[in-house]
Amino acid sequence: MKTNDLFEEGRNCCKVARCDKAAFIIDGKRYFKALYDVMAEAQSHFIILSWDIMSQFKLVREENDYGDKPAALGEFLNAVLAENEEIEGYILNWDYSLLLASDRELMPSLRFNWNTSGRLHFKQDDHIPLGGCHHQKVVVVDDKLGFCGGIDITRGRWDTPEHLIDNPHRGEEGNRTLRPHHDIQMAVAGPIVRALSKMARERWQACGEDTIKAERSDPEEASLWPEGLPVELENVDVALSRTLPDAEGQGVYEVEQLFIDTIQQAEQYLYIENQYLSADCIAEAIEDSLAQDNGPDIIVVTPLVTDGWVSQQTMDHQRAKLIERIKSRDRYNRFQAYYPRITENNEIALNVHAKLMIADNQFVRIGSGNLSNRSMRLDSECDLSIFEKHREDVQAAIENLRNKLLAEHLGVSADSVAQAIAQHESLKSAIESIRQRNLSAGKVRTLEPLPTVSKAKSTPLPGSSDIFDPSEPIDPKRLLSAMGEEYAETQPSDEGRRLPWVWIGIACSCIALSVMWKWGPLAEWTDLATIQTTMSAIKDLPLAPLVAFFILVVACILMVPLTFLAVLSALLFGLIQGFVLALMSAMTSAYLSYLIGAWIGRESLTSLAGERFNKVSRKLAEHGVLSVAAIRLLPVAPFTIVNMVAGASHIKLKDFLLGSTLALSPALFAIVLLADQFRLSLESASFDQVMMRIGIAGLVIVVAYVAVTRAIKYVRGTDAASKA
């Protein structure tokens, strides 16, 4: 690399500290085994920062990995705490949006706070600005050993480097085998762990008043390094870089700056593995590097398709757009984006979830930061990096990591990768030589060039780059601008306009109710004891479903969280009736709120938001059902406020109801399904009963998915025909 001193505290990292030992852990099996061994030996405390966490997740799954403690995370943590009364545990998890409910364990706070030891403290981080998320994936044990990378302790993360299609251990809770998953984590010991611990403690304290147990300070205590984890580096400096979103002018953007600095300083090659490639600042830095006469090869390994329909309609389209732009400016043909192929026709694609960058055998970076706009500025992130220009042992370890990763994706040995690189002038040509040999031999497993057109089978959602991958907090005006496309230009300030007090009063009342339901005196109505009391009272009433329906409609209008109401429906009436009740209540509430907005009128809202609202409102009305569905999937504002604003806009009632039904049905069904399974587990239902319900639920989900897809295609086709 060009520089002799890459790291600069306060600019591209917050701390550079000594690391006594370090290891690069490829894929989930080895990481979760190391985590199992280390946490079992904890003596003081452990801290877990996560984007998602699952109490039923099995840390170990193969017979020779088991120890004397349970495999499931919740039971394992209980056993660790029961064995030593001095230990305290802390878990900080993202307070996720309704959009992701179907992929997550139901009621994590209840599972970790109620079903585990009183010395296990669980919080959900809801202090991230609107549109962002808590995305750090860090574990610290006794402030002596730490892990940082891209792996959460949740479903779909356990896998081996072989990524076998039918590996039965990859499934969760006895259900289907999940998509193969590739990721990487770094383990560190020594003073750098104190820096990780300090960051984790600050994140914890930002979400409440209580503090984490004091750090351990005895340097003579035995190391926690797990026996089965080879040490790959010793006595190196490690930099800790963060993204912390802007809070009153205090944003931290070290992750972004280090990415840019590394791309600028690379001389021979950059090897990147990342889930996304959508950040404009990264694309610009890559383009500047490719413009150099003798710049580095830049290799990006990314998934063929990302996880989830929304991500495929947004992030995949943005990635394809950026890669096409980069390739158009690659004068010397030094850039290539690949995806790992693991099946003949890509019917199953490897989920590349790693966040890794290697440069010139001198620099390695592993963490949670994606190459997306949101990771640069809006989500909380944490990365660890090593830069060493003079020590051959460090450079050899980094080179070996690169070779092992390429070998995994190309289906060859690390030695074969090393030989190919030695025989060719560039990293790109070496990869291409192995690819051609694989092609000639008819091998399935290899790297393939990523198509420049997104594999998503539809056009991107309106305003997707600004809404789903924002670089700053989402606000309603910017949301409408992004959805309205050509009306996104900056408009004159509306501060001089007279504000309609009726809308101000409604907005303030709704916000106040939301706050009271979550943090204020109304919060007690959503705890477990109150739920049980309410359930008993309602079940004993005549015409209980009808009574429950009216209660839920009123509660929804009064800003009671929709997720809570869906859970209550399931606990009261089971899966099918509970889903029907939740959906009918939500849609009736939406209809009534829409009428209230229509009654108040568009003129009042135009006075508040300006004539720009009218223009964007008309544009949204053109997309009709799709616009409503897209807005419904985003946590941009409380449910009732969205309904009222829709009523005051140009959106037609039939489009509003259809779009709301399309968006809410899958999410509500997923929540009710999870709540119902939780109820069954409490009632000790038989295995056959649970399996039958899951089968019925799965069939309904498939039918609903097909129906939603066809409806969206029909609406889009009708819209295109009307414009032709």
Tell me what the structure shows.
With 724 residues, the chain is α+β, with helices and mostly antiparallel strands. It folds into three domains: 15-235, Endonuclease, Chain A (2-Layer Sandwich), CATH 3.30.870.10; 245-449, Endonuclease Chain A (Endonuclease, Chain A), CATH 3.30.870; 475-723, no CATH class. It has 24 helices and 18 strands. The chain has a 16-stranded mixed sheet that branches. Strands 7-14 form a two-stranded parallel sheet. It is globular and about 80 Å long.
Task: Reconstruct the topology from this structure.
Elements: E1 15-26, H1 28-40, E2 45-50, H2 73-83, E3 88-94, H3 108-114, E4 120-125, E5 138-141, E6 145-149, E7 181-182, E8 184-189, H4 191-206, E9 233-244, E10 252-253, H5 254-265, E11 269-274, H6 280-290, E12 297-301, H7 309-328, E13 335-341, E14 351-352, E15 355-359, E16 363-367, H8 373-377, E17 381-387, H9 392-410, H10 414-423, H11 427-441, E18 446-449, H12 464-467, H13 476-484, H14 501-518, H15 528-539, H16 544-557, H17 562-573, H18 575-600, H19 602-609, H20 611-623, H21 625-632, H22 639-648, H23 653-682, H24 687-723
Parallel strand pairs: 2-3, 3-4, 7-14, 11-12, 12-13
Antiparallel strand pairs: 1-8, 1-9, 2-5, 5-6, 6-8, 9-10, 9-17, 11-15, 13-18, 15-16, 16-17
Helix pairs in contact: 5-6, 6-7, 9-10, 10-11, 13-20, 16-17, 16-18, 17-18, 17-23, 18-22, 18-23, 19-20, 20-21, 21-23, 23-24
Q: In a few lines, what is going on in this structure?
A:
This protein has 724 residues and is of the alpha+beta class. The protein folds into 3 domains: 15-235, Endonuclease, Chain A; 245-449, Endonuclease Chain A (Endonuclease, Chain A); 475-723, no CATH class.
